[in-house]
Design goal:
Blueprint lengths: L11 H10 L6 E4 L18 E4 L3 E7 L17 E9 L2 H9 L5 E4 L3 E3 L4 E2 L15 H7 L2 E5 L11 E2 L14 E3 L3 E6 L2 E7 L5 H8 L4 E2 L4
Parallel strand pairs: 1-2, 1-5, 5-8, 6-9, 8-10, 12-13
Antiparallel strand pairs: 2-3, 3-4, 6-7, 10-11, 11-12
């Protein structure tokens, strides 16, 4: 049994900052509902990253606070946001033309499961108390040039969200390029899952055991 109380897990902010490291200058990036939306708070000053929101906003800035809040200016999760200089608003249909036309470089989505082949399930678990809502996830998963997943590594009951095969309804097949969790950064490659980095206090062998799937050790810690 692995004692995770001795492991310094990444916070949501830590995961967001780690993802930003892998976003190149000049990229157009869509942020999915949930954890990915926090990424807008950590845009680096040395990069120009244009954030896209599927409800019709390009050039989205950090989440709005106090006097900045305009209830009519929100992201796809209905959270008040700001606009950076040069930002623009467009019709919902035009926003999806950007997505389906392959104009989004990176999309960051949350997920319930990701398979070793990069399949993603992020819209339904079968829980009768939860309302299934796929939204634009299927369009984004296939329309973006790259798909990053931001999620907790384990469920609340301690089960791995990485799987040999997804057991939940699929959002897209073989779409995920990289997975960012509170425990590790894991690339999806033709050779399988590659652990790029992982948190202090956790060995590669322990990470693989917790993940419950085959994994290749990447760069040294």
């Amino acid at each position: 049994m692995i004692d995770l109380s001795k492991v310094k897990k990444r916070t949501t902010a830590d995961i967001a900052k780690r993802i930003v490291q892998d976003i190149p200058d000049g990229a157009h990036v869509n942020l999915g509902i949930g954890q990915p939306m926090t990424i807008s708070n950590y845009l680096p000053s040395d990069k120009e990253i244009l954030l896209h929101s599927e409800n019709g906003l390009l050039g989205m800035g950090p989440l709005a606070k106090d006097h900045e809040i305009d209830e009519e200016l929100v992201n796809a999760g209905k959270q008040p946001v700001t606009m950076l200089p040069g930002a623009s608003l467009c019709h919902h249909a035009d926003s999806f033309v950007m997505i389906r036309g392959g104009h989004i470089d990176i999309c960051v989505l949350g997920a319930f499961q990701v398979s070793i082949k990069g399949d993603i399930a992020n819209w339904r678990t079968g829980d009768p108390k939860a309302i299934p809502a796929v939204g634009g996830a299927m369009d984004l998963a296939l329309g973006a040039k790259k798909l990053f997943v931001m999620m907790e590594h384990l469920t609340k009951s301690g089960e791995s969200k990485l799987a040999k095969e997804c057991t939940y309804p699929l959002t897209a097949l073989a779409a995920v390029d990289c997975i960012y969790t509170d425990l590790a950064t894991i690339a999806v490659t033709p050779q399988g899952l590659v652990a790029v980095d992982w948190v202090d206090g956790l060995s590669f062998e322990e990470l693989q055991s917790l993940s419950g799937v085959p994994m290749i050790q990447g760069s040294a810690q």
